[in-house]
Amino acid sequence: MSLEKRILNKQNDRLKTNLAQQKVELNLIADVEKALDKANSKRRNLEKLAKKISSDLNELQSDYAIAFQIAKKGENAAKEIGAEDLRKLFGNRADEAKDYEGAVGRAANKIFSAVSGI
User: Second label for 41, Cα 20 to 30 Å away, from 49, 67, 71, 106?
Assistant: First the structure.
């Protein structure tokens, strides 16, 4: 085999090796793009869901505030007529509503803050 032919064969081998490496790199880039696109899509969906949950919890907080006000009215009415057992019942329910109102509000804020930080 002539020197010229051996040089051409060596160059051809190097070119094939280089092309194979580039093909592998392109495949890896495509794999990364696909994986990132999938992950980003999931993240966006979960962010939207978490913000919806946070909003729903804020609405629930308002519902507990209304329940608290009603229970307080009931407690005051029971106190006026001297119905101590009924006053205690309304008082306990008012305390429960107030506790949940605060807990739900804190949870809503934490969820919103956590998701906003992403």
Answer: 106
